[in-house]
Design brief:
By secondary structure, this protein is mainly alpha-helical. The chain has ten helices and three strands.
Length: 224
């Protein structure tokens, strides 16, 4: 974990993972979980002190988060991790899967109830709930290449997308991906041209200049 982290920080990260999994409602790939947490990290500045994201082979990546996903310390038996299946290209790309357990669903319900109550008076708790509502319903339902396409081509993420080993493959199928996004209702037909143009402008992806590396109430980052 980053900086002078505490046990409370680790516990908060684990609860945030559970919130993402509970909101998604089913099995989620590690790739999706990493990217959704990254978007939460971008959305809520105080979350940034909890984990570090760096440019990696599949876009923004957190070793801190990867460790917690596989080795939870406080939120025990709330999710199961399944390693990638040997011989499966998709499994290798997405890094395996994480699925919330029945116990996890119970804890998630209590956690969400406590956070919703806290959000009535706490702006940071409200921001977490708002971020979950914006991020999870959209990104958890995307195919891996659709997810990476949206991450890669967003210029605000360019510092985290310069080392990707999948960028050429993803950008080569840009038109197919954009058409799928239209069918899923992620974008409208009118937005296709702008998104394809955005992909053409995403030169930073292949750049050789890499940057250096009862209800449960949680302690929401930034709350007093």
């Amino acid at each position: 974990m980053v900086g002078n982290f505490s046990e409370e920080d680790i516990e908060t990260v684990e609860y945030l993972i559970l919130l993402l999994l509970g909101k998604a409602g089913g099995r989620v790939s590690v790739l999706h979980l990493q990217k959704m947490f990254f978007l939460l990290w971008r959305f809520h500045p105080e979350v940034r002190r909890l984990v570090q994201f760096v440019p990696h082979f599949k876009g923004p990546y957190s070793q801190d988060l990867q460790y917690v996903i596989r080795n939870p310390t406080y939120v025990i038996d709330c999710w199961n991790y399944t390693p990638p299946q040997k011989g499966s290209k998709v499994d290798r790309i997405v890094g395996g899967y994480v699925e919330i357990t029945p116990k996890g669903r119970e804890i998630y319900s209590l956690l969400l109830k406590g956070l919703t109550e806290k959000a009535k008076e706490d702006k940071d708790a409200l921001r977490i709930l708002s971020a979950l509502d914006l991020i999870v319903p959209l990104y958890s339902k995307l195919e891996w290449d659709e997810l990476l396409f949206l991450i890669y081509t967003d210029e605000t993420n360019k510092d985290f997308s310069t080392r990707s080993e999948l960028s050429k493959e993803v950008l080569a199928r840009a038109e197919s991906i954009v058409n799928r996004l239209v069918k899923k209702g992620v974008i409208t037909e009118d937005m296709k041209g702008a998104l394809l143009e955005r992909a053409k402008r995403s030169k930073w992806i292949t750049s050789s200049n890499h940057p250096s590396k009862d209800p449960i109430v949680i302690n929401v980052p930034g709350s007093t």
